Every structure is written in C-alpha cells, then in structure tokens.
UniProtKB/TrEMBL annotation:
Protein's organism: Macrostomum lignano
Name under which the protein is recorded: Multidrug and toxin extrusion protein
Pfam family name, one: MatE
NCBIfam families, sorted: matE (TIGR00797)
Transmembrane segments: 26-45, 97-121, 127-148, 169-188, 194-215, 236-254, 274-294, 315-334, 354-373, 385-410, 416-435
One GO molecular-function entry: xenobiotic transmembrane transporter activity
Taxonomy, superkingdom: Eukaryota
InterPro entries on file: MATE_fam
Family: Belongs to the multi antimicrobial extrusion (MATE) (TC 2.A.66.1) family.
One Gene Ontology cellular component annotation held by this UniProt entry: membrane
Organism ancestry: Eukaryota, Metazoa, Spiralia, Lophotrochozoa, Platyhelminthes
UniProt keyword list: Membrane, Transmembrane, Transmembrane helix
Length: 466
C-alpha cells in the first residue's frame, strides 16, 4: 500500500511540475491577442472592429489547426519516447512540420478570400476589407506559430517546459513593444498592430529552434532530417484531423453562444463576453495539467505499461477535480466583483449575476471531464473525443438550451442551462468510455504502433530504423 501511494504521489508531483509552466505558457500566448485589441481600441471604434473581426477569424481558422497539431503531436511523440525507438520522435516532428506547411497553405487561401465571405454573412464592406488586410499581414506569423506548436509539443514531451514559458514571456513583451512603436510612434494604425503581432509570432520558432540547436536536447531523439517523414501519413492524418475537428466543435459552440447572446440584446452580449473571458482563464490550468497528463499516459502506453497509465489517469482526475473545485469557489466568492471589473452597466451586471450560478458548476464539471479526455488522447482515441464533444454539445446540450432560450423564452438562463447540460453529458460520456477502456489491449496496440514506424520498414536501411 505504501509503495502504491508513493507512486501516486510521484505522478501527482510530476503532473504539477509539468502542468503549471504549461498553464502559464498558454496564458501568456493567449494574452497577445487581447493586447493587440487594446492597442487598436485606442485608435477608435472602427479600428477596434477591424481588429476584433480579424482576430475572431484568425482564432476560428488558425487556432483549431494549431491546437489540433499540438494535441496529435503530444500523443505521437510521447508514445514514441516511451518506446524503445526514441529516435522516431524526430521523424514525427518532421512529419508534423510538413503537415503544418500544408495547413498553412489552406489558411492562406481562406485569408485572401475572407473579405468576400465576411460581406456575404452581413459584415460591413469596409470593416471586412480591413480585416482581410489584417489577416494577410498575419499569415507569415500563422506559419511560424503552426511550426512552433509542433516544437512546443516536442519540448513538452521531453519535459523541457521552462524554456517554453520564457519564450512566451519574451514574445509577449516584444509584441507589446513593437505594437506601441508601430501604432503610436510610426503611425501605422491597425496594420501596425498586425505587423507587431506577426513579428512576435515569428519570433517564437526562431527562439525555439535556437534553443534546440544550442542545447542539443534533440541528439537522443532527433538524429537529423529524413525522407521517412513522408511515410505513414494515413495513421498521422487519422489522428490529426479528429484533433482539429475537436477544436472546431468547441470553437463553434462558443461562437454560437456569442451569436445567440447578440441576438437577445446588447446587455446579454456584454454579459456573455465577460463569461467567455472568465471561462478562458479558468480553462488554462485544465489545458496545462491535461497536456502534462497526455505526455505521461502516452509515454507509459508506448512502453506497454498500462498499470502506470491508469495511475496517471486516476491522479489527473483527482487533480483536475480539485482545480475545478477551487475555481468554482473563487468564482462564487467573487461573483459580485467580477462583472464590475469589465462593465459598469447595471443591466449587464444583473444578467451576469443570474447566469453565474450556471457557470460555476459548468466550470467544475468541464474541469473534471478533462481528465477523461486527456486519457483518451494519450491512448490515441482522438476520434472518440470528437464524437463525445459532438454528441454532448450539439446533440444534447445546445438543442435543449436553444429550446429553453427561444421556445420557453427564458433567454440567457436557457442558453446556459444548455451549456451546463452539455458539460454533464460530456463528463458522463467520457467517464463511461474510459471506464470501459481495455487498458491492456490498448497498451499493446499503442506500443506495437510506436515500435513500428511504417509498414514498409523493409525499404529503409537498418541504420535508419535503429
């Protein structure tokens, strides 16, 4: 019993050590976008509208791709590093960078046509054209951030998390400095803000590449560039596309809430905006701890050590449940203070005070559910994660929420009733599937896949496969 408890304690300490730097890193990266909006807001309403619309499109198109890349890379890399053929990790990094370039080409196609698409859905033509220019300036940064997400996943799996935190901090400070220079000193306006953001995004992979080369942290897992990165794309995309789809499901869910709130009224939209910013903050610890859990579970499954994998799953469930409880209690204690930080409007504050009692349990349930999702991702069940999210959000929660909002006529209370129901359904589905998971069989399958890079191993030299 003492040995088992010490093992759980070790995993808990490891998850906390890995999780909190990942959390801060993600938070620092997320702050770059509201900081950009703040600079544009100082230029006037039109500039803020252009930047807000451009950032929304960027986050709708690019962020799901970059997050999907990272989630799939975390799974593949951790499993490869847990196997006996650790140098396969370098091949996976190369394959992921190639995929990032392909995804960037698709994003460029959307960027050069986004003005027409925005006008078609009712946006002002001048704002739409300005947003397209903003996004076009961001495109080099888009490519860089996609490549950086791959490098970030690689470093996370190597448990080198503090360099990533430092790089995000430097990039944020550079972003603030360049935007102040371009917007106010050089008078470049909105385009100056876009240029400053682009430069700071481009800085991230440059710093990461420099660190990898100088520290030689890659020497045991990445011997050099290889043509093997063009093999085994079927299995890779089989996990990458569901990871991206999973992010799109959540982004579309959030955008749906914003659209419905805007339809109900300005005060409702303002209250929803406050809740959305609050939710982003509360999700960062879940993302950080969940990412750490994926790397740990993936390593153990790659080594066919399903017992350790199950231990990490139990620990992350308890840890995220505790984090969710603390966040819920803090929100309950500060429920009267939070809306006043963002808005002085009494109607907005009143609406916030009504729906906060739905948001508090929602945050706790979502945090708890992240443990199931981390376990499924660590075991290569990205398709299952998409199905869970799709069913919970769009087949259970939102139909009920929209019916309560419009048919019953209870407005925002109905909308957030749907969100709460979807979170409970998401948690239950994840729990049921994870409890029924054949850890032994999955570990054998994952380990076998990690040990076998491709079905055409015979065409590759013996030295390359070592």
């Amino acid at each position: 019993m003492g040995i088992e408890w010490s093992e759980y304690k070790f995993e808990l300490v490891t998850l906390v050590k890995l999780g909190w730097p990942m959390t801060v890193s993600v938070l620092l990266y997320a702050l770059m976008y509201p900081a950009t909006l703040a600079f544009c807001g100082a230029l006037g309403i039109e500039a803020l509208d252009i930047a807000s619309l451009a950032v929304s499109v960027f986050q709708l198109v690019v962020v799901p791709i970059e997050n999907g890349l990272r989630w799939s890379c975390l799974t593949f890399l951790s499993q490869a590093l847990g196997s006996s053929k650790k140098k396969r990790a370098g091949v996976i990094v190369q394959r992921s960078i190639t995929a990032a370039v392909c995804m960037w080409i698709v994003s460029c196609g959307l960027a050069v046509n986004c003005a027409k698409l925005l006008v078609l859905i009712g946006q002002d033509a001048g704002i739409a054209i300005g947003s397209q220019t903003f996004i076009t300036i961001l495109m080099p940064g888009c490519l860089c951030v996609l490549i950086y997400r791959v490098q970030m996943a690689y470093m996370d799996c190597l448990q080198r998390v503090f360099p990533t935190l430092f790089m995000h901090l430097v990039s944020l400070l550079v972003c603030l400095g360049l935007e102040a220079l371009f917007v106010f000193q050089l008078g470049l306006g909105v385009n100056g803000a876009a240029l400053g953001l682009c430069c700071s995004l481009c800085l991230l992979p440059v710093m990461m590449t420099s660190y990898i080369v100088i520290s030689k942290v890659h020497k045991d897992t990445w011997p050099g560039w290889s043509m093997r990165c063009f093999l085994q794309w079927g299995e890779y995309y089989y996990n990458l596309f569901p990871s991206i789809a999973n992010q799109l499901v959540f982004v579309s869910s959030s955008e749906m809430g914003t659209f419905v709130a805007g339809y109900l009224g300005k005060a409702e939209l303002a209250a929803q905006g406050i809740i959305f910013q609050l939710f982003i903050l509360t999700m960062q610890p879940c993302v950080g701890a969940g990412s750490a859990a994926i790397t740990r579970i993936g390593r153990y499954m790659g080594a066919a050590n399903y017992v350790k994998g199950k231990q990490v799953y139990k620990v992350i469930l308890a840890l995220l449940g505790f984090i969710g409880l603390i966040e819920a209690l803090l929100m309950l204690a500060l429920k009267d203070v939070i809306p006043k930080i963002f808005s002085a409007d009494e109607e907005t504050t009143e609406i916030f005070s009504q729906i906060i009692y739905f948001v508090i349990p929602y945050v706790f349930v979502i945090a708890s559910a992240w443990g199931h999702i981390a376990a499924l991702r660590g075991c290569n069940f990205h398709n299952t994660c998409v199905v869970i999210a799709l069913v919970a959000l769009w087949f259970i929660g939102h139909p009920i929420g929209l019916s309560l909002t419009f048919a019953v006529g209870i407005g925002m209370l109905g909308l957030w009733s749907g969100y709460l129901i979807s979170s409970v359904a998401w948690n239950i589905l994840g729990l049921v599937i994870t409890l029924r998971l054949d850890w032994t069989g999955v570990s054998k399958k994952v380990s076998g896949s990690a040990e076998r890079e491709t079905d055409v191993e015979g065409f590759i030299t013996h030295d390359e496969t070592r």
